[in-house]
Sequence to fold (349 residues):
Amino acid sequence: MSGRRSPAKNKQSTMRDVAEMANVSLMTVSRVLNEEGKVSDETRDRVMAAVEKLNYKLNISARSLSSAKSFVLGFFYDLSVGAFIREYLIGTMLRCNELGYHLILEPCDFSEMDIKAFIKKMVRRHALDGIIVPPPLGDNSLLLDALEAEGVRYVRVGAGAQLKRSLCVVINDYAASVQMTEHLISQGHKNIGFIKGDLNQEISHKRFAGYMDTMQKNNLRVNSGWIGEGNFQFEGGMAAAEKILKKSKVTAIFASNDDMAAGAIAAARKLHIDVPEELSVAGFDDTALAVSMWPQLTTIHQPIFDMSKSAVDLLVESIRSNFDKKISSKVQIELEHHLQIRDSVKNIK
Fold:
């Protein structure tokens, strides 16, 4: 009797199985299957060998829901954003795989392209059923205009502006910022600096408003020198924090994303300021970066993975509702955030 393990009967292989067998990431598998991006011949051969050995194929059970659709979704993303976009992408890929949808990945730099022409080309070339639009693209009115002109369904994830305009999955950024500011105040901090994100994104204004309103509610003044702008980038956060720390004696800095918070910690080290003994630092998003730095970051946990999966569900439900009148697609999903307390904030009472 052979000791070789037989594959489980009736078990359909997934994209994750292919990735594990080929010893590559899910993103690499997607690139190979979509014939997009730079992948070495050796890696491509490994992935395709795994596909053949596992007899990997899209889950066709969902196809019975409609015979008129391509079962292809697009994921458009901005190349300039931080590492958090990977979490949006992983959640999206996994859910598409589970539902039997193929995912086309498309990096976008709309500062150098004709948005209308790009959308028309992509939608028609790939016969896209719908598109997932992660931040910051969800606040780009020209992109939304082009999508609607082309008549393609789309869901925005983490958008801040015009939420009633389209299907979207969000958290309450204002309430989350209030919660973090209240936490810093509860730890004895009164002189609290704030680093704004990209001012072209509405969530930046909501997070700043949450901070300002909470400071005012607690009768705490805000010095103009305590406020900086970091454009949601590590380098921007570092520069903004360095300017704040040289001008004022804040005991805490609330950076409105984790990348900028990491930059603030780097600025403090450059100025020989100990975190958290002399300066507390808080972030927003709870990306992998938050637990890979030291001290680990107190931050707002935004359920990016779940938001991505919910966005796919919302988009697929919208597609199905066009063919099955019994299905009524939701318009907006708001998921819960929570405060993630770690070592970067010290109680100074």
Q: What stands out?
A: The longest strand covers residues 72-78. The two ends are 71 Å apart (CA to CA). The domain at 58-170+305-334 is CATH 3.40.50.2300 (Rossmann fold). Residues 1-10, 58-68 have pLDDT under 50 and may be disordered.
